[in-house]
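Treating backbone geometry as a discrete language has practical consequences that deserve illustration. Part of our work consisted of pairing the sequence of a single chain with a tokenised description of its backbone. What the numbers capture is local backbone geometry rather than side-chain detail. For completeness, the protein is quoted in full, as a sequence line and a line of structure tokens:
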Amino acid sequence: MIYAVVKIICSAAIIAVVTEVARRFPTYGGMIAALPLVSILSIIWLTVQSEPNEHIQRFTVGVIVGLPATMVMLYVMYMAMKSSIHIVFAIGLGVVSWAICLGIQKAIASVFHISI
């Protein structure tokens, strides 16, 4: 239980710092947000909780597989907001594009008999 509380506090602190930097310096905030902070924190917590190395490696592969879809999502959100679409709808379009991209990736992987 203590790990959960520490994880929540650390995550909240990082989000607070990133959003504060983004409020004052939007470009730098975006660059910091683009850092794989969640991935690094997750790997640290998995290690602290004594997860096997194989489990952490599979997690890392999952992060790599998710990168293209995440880039598509962010691009769709950017273009939607640039076109004056409300932020809620821009996020919705981004999430839908993310899901579609992951589906396409999975379909392509199955053609080549790759398990993701």
